[in-house]
Specification:
Helix 2 packs antiparallel against helix 3. This protein has two domains: 57 residues; 45 residues, no CATH class. The protein has six helices and no strands. It is an all-alpha fold.
């Protein structure tokens, strides 16, 4: 499929997971507007892609540590969703007992920047 150069550049900047998310967002937008003007659809699709890409950039930079640690239950990936309900206190207690292979003080794997 021929891809607009701007979009191609964007997709190259994304991780594979982010790229998949971006494709999904775009597909969702495409399905949602369905029977409307093609140009309108294209615009909405592009916007959905931008949103997914911004979120991916946020994940990469890994900023807002405190808030996201609480949200993720100090665990990366899908395990985080299961633990999300726990109180912050429980998390703080458990943090000290977690094996720290390749993790920083706060029990997370280092992404970019310091942990």
């Amino acid at each position: 499929e021929r891809v607009a150069p701007r979009r191609q550049a964007a997709e190259n900047r994304c991780s594979r997971r982010a790229h998949a998310r971006l494709r999904r967002a775009r597909a969702r937008a495409r399905a949602r507007d369905g029977r409307r003007g093609a140009a309108d659809a294209a615009r909405r699709v592009r916007r959905a892609g931008d949103h997914a890409r911004d979120r991916a950039a946020g994940d990469r930079r890994d900023q807002g540590t405190a808030r996201r640690v609480r949200a993720r239950g100090l665990v990366a990936g899908s395990a985080g969703h299961a633990r999300r309900r726990e109180t912050e206190q429980a998390l703080l207690q458990r943090k000290d007992q977690r094996p720290r292979a390749g993790r920083g003080r706060d029990g997370r794997r280092a992404r970019f920047g310091s942990d």
